[in-house]
Structure formats: C-alpha cells, structure tokens
Fold this sequence. Notes:
alpha+beta, Nucleotidyltransferase, domain 5, GIY-YIG endonuclease, 4 domains, five-stranded mixed sheet, five-stranded antiparallel sheet, 17 helices, DnaQ, DNA polymerase-3 subunit epsilon, 3'-5' exonuclease activity, GIY-YIG_endonuc_sf, DNA-directed DNA polymerase activity
Amino acid sequence: MILQEQKEVLRYSKEMKKQEYAIVDIETTGGNASGSRITEIAIIIHDGENVIDRFETLVNPEKEIPLSIFGLTGINNAMVANAPIFDAISEKVLEMLTDRIFVAHNVNFDYSFVRHQLEQAGFKWTARKLCTVRAARKIKPGLSSYSLGKLCYSLDIPLENQHRAGGDADATAILFSRLLEWDAEGEIAKMVKMTSQDQRLPPNLPPEDFNNLPEKPGVYYFYNQQKKVIYVGKAINLKKRVASHFSGHKINPQRQHFLRDIHGISFEVCANELMALLLECTEIKQLWPTYNRALKRFEAKFGIYQYEARNGYKYLAVGKLTKFQTCIHEFNSLYNAIDLLRSLAEQFEIDQRFCKYSRPEEGEFFQNNEVKSLPDVLLHNEQVDNAIDFLLSNRPTFAIIDKGRSKEERSCIWVENGHFYGMGYIPSDVAITDPSEVKNYVTQYKSNQYMVQLIFAYAEKYPGKVFFNKQFLK
C-alpha cells in the first residue's frame, strides 16, 4: 500500500513539472475582501523550473487608502489616482491565472481578494491553490517563523521592497523555486491536488493538530500564537466539525481574522453530545474566548432576592446579579424573573407591595394621603417563607447515567437541588446504590440556567437514563 502511494506521488510529481504556476502578491486597503480593495498586484508565471512571464501594476481601489495601510506599504491615494481600476486589468489578470495553479504566501488571503474582484468584474474563476507557508512548514519544518520576511532571512532569500506586491512576489517566486528543489517527498504534488484537505487548513495551523482529531463527541479549542484559547466549540464528530470551520469561501473580515489567528488545536473527548455541550458552556464562561459570541448571551443577569426591612416585613425583589449577594434563583432575562415573582405572589397571596420588580411605585403605601392597611407581619412573613420553601423544594436532585467513552466506564451528570453540580465517569464494574456515592466520581462545575435547561430537557427526553429521582422516572 505504501509503495503504491509512493508511485502515485512520483507519477503526480512528473505531471507537475508540466504544470505552470501563477505566483501572486497583492496590496490592499484592508484585511477583508468584502470591504476592502486591491491597490497593487503582481503575478509571476513559473513553469516549475524558471520564471517565464511577469505582470505588475498599481490599482486604483476607488476608495480612500487608510493611513495605517500607507504606513505599511507606502502606497498612498496620490500614487493610485491615475492607476487603472481593477475592471480595466481584469481580463489580463484572468488570462494569466487561467489553467495555472494559484501560488501565494498565505494563499487564502490573496485568493479571496482576486476571486472576489474578478467576480465583481463579471468573471467566474476558481483555481487550485498552493500556500508557500504550508509548503515551507512541510519541507523545512522547525523554523522559528514562517512569515515571508523571517522565512527569507532564515533561508537566505533576497527580499527587496518588502510589503509591495512586486517585491514580495519576487521573494515568493525564489522561495517557491527553492521549495521545489528541496521537495524530496513530493509534498507540493500532494498539496496541489484538488482533494487535498491540507490546502483548506488555516495557514498557521500545524496539519498534525487537525489530523489528530478523532471522529468522536467532544470539545475543541483553537489557540492563537501566544497559546491563548480564542475559540471553544462542541461537536458530535470532532474532526468533521472542525473541518467545517475551514470550508467554504466566505470573505467577511471576522472569518479571515479568525482563520489567521488559529495556530493550534487541542480537544477533549466526551461520552455524548450533552456532556460536550456542558463542558463547552463551562469553558466559555471560564476562558471567555475572543471569538465565542453565541453562548455568552446565556449568562444569567438577574435573580430573585429576599430581604427583611426595619419594620420587620420580608420582601421579595428582582435585581441584577452581583458577586456579593446570594439570590434565591437566577434568570437570563428580567422578564422571566418578574414573571416567576408574580406567580409566586399570586400563589401564596403575598401583598404585591412587598414584591419589588424595579423601583418602588410612588405612593404604594398610601391612599388618599393615608397609610394603607398592612397585612399581619407574622402571617405575611410566613407566606414569603412558604413561597421560598416551595421554590427551593421543587429543585430536584438526580443523576443522568449513560454510556461512557469506552466499555470500561459509564458517564454521569449530577444535578443537586436543581443546579448542575458536575459530571464525570464511573468505572463499569462499580455498582452505585446510594446517590451520595455518585458525587465521588464527578468533577464539580459552576452551574448556570442555560446548562440546567439543557439537562432538564435531556432528562425529559430520556427518562430511562435518570436515576435517584422519582420526578423523571415513569
């Protein structure tokens, strides 16, 4: 089998010598193709041995060039004022790119701009791509950096007029020629295959990080260059879900910045999707990654509080959560908190004047400038206590026990007094007869309302997996 693969690579490598490459570099007004434009483009045609053609021009982007871009590239508005717009050179660009492999340093950036502007000019174009960042990582592993400047310095490649399309394209062409010479294992031939998954990976991600992902449920972590977690996700199939982040041709700035920031992946396998969801929620709350947005909305913000005034009356109040006060119950929204408090007041006949939904209403204790009659303080306080006891006593304690990550274990999620307590794994040969024994096998996590909703929905759907609580047993 290995010999057959080697023969296939050798055959494909020979075919690649007949292939031509378009080595491209561009300068732009910004970092994303949808909101920015090309200000300069250089295309060098390489036949696998020599440079055979070259095209380079400034481009009028038909919009202002930001000062920060001018500081980086030296290209200003005056320089491009009389340059051709992209539409005027689009046919030339298309001609040079057609039937050639598109080569660039961090290829997806340049490719997205060129493809987008050709499409705006009326041309549908796609091409096989080759990223010299990825090729260098494979053929010359272990270098300190694979940015074009530092790579050229490490490999003794001349780089003149850096951050201009012509200068960077010339350096990339030399780098490409060297990589072809050093490529004893046929890595470039493998990479330019249309089916190559590696070509779709972010430029700074080591391929082995992706290849090590299992096809199992779990949680995955994306890291930036400083080894900080920038995104946490859950998956039923880790490899398939992570691959979905890198597929498609979306060109919005958030996606481009996101992919460029990914320098590493790690993962943790979970027994099922529910455990992956709970771990994802916990990790997002703890790590607060830059690119996670959706689950941050489910952070509880309000609670129901109980306090006693100087006059001896007990109050129930809705307020924002604080670090220094303990509430009776948490809520994602103010509406849900008010709705529950009103229901409790109605059910236990609590005087609405002692239920605070926001600011006290003007004159709530007065009528016709006279003090309204107040309920008996002992009876009122007993009604408030009964309402709180009802709320607390209706919080079930139970376990969800399911299959584990292997046959040697079972998974367990423990809920205590209506809150997610923790989760873990119990050896298959251990018999649990007392509910308190379950807690010895779980790792404790901080609960929130969203996680509790997920668990309760699962318990309702799969009552046969619920133990130690009659409420869910049928």
